[in-house]
# Entry
Amino acid sequence: MNQLWTVYLGGEIHSDWREQIRIGSEAAGLPIEFLAPVTDHAASDRCGVEILGEEPSSFWTDHQGASVNAMRTRTFIGRSDIVVIRFGEQYRQWNAAFDAGQAAAMGKPLIILHPESHDHALKEVDAAANAVARTPEQVIGLIRYVIEGSLG
# Structure
């Protein structure tokens, strides 16, 4: 297929997993445009007040930032052919769970990426996914198979 595929890489922002998938996909010659949330944590948290003005409490600062980020996330998930959501090991990532839920609700093909230690906690999220991967390399293999119908 000569189609350019759009893949949204959502979830955990504290490791280089996105870069690993980008590099591996490029090396495999896969025709992919990658989309992602803002991965600068401070910018993501403060985008609302930086654009719309300061808020009197941290609750409203967080609310405003989440609302602004949701526009980007919802738009990018909607444009995507495949959605990959990573749950990392360090933080509780409610936003990742919400993104996975949105992708599932939109009927998007969904790959969840997380360590085995999260299996029980993410059993409902995993049940909504088309595949659960443990490594970025497995994600690349899944995407390659979907695009090319080959195992590598």
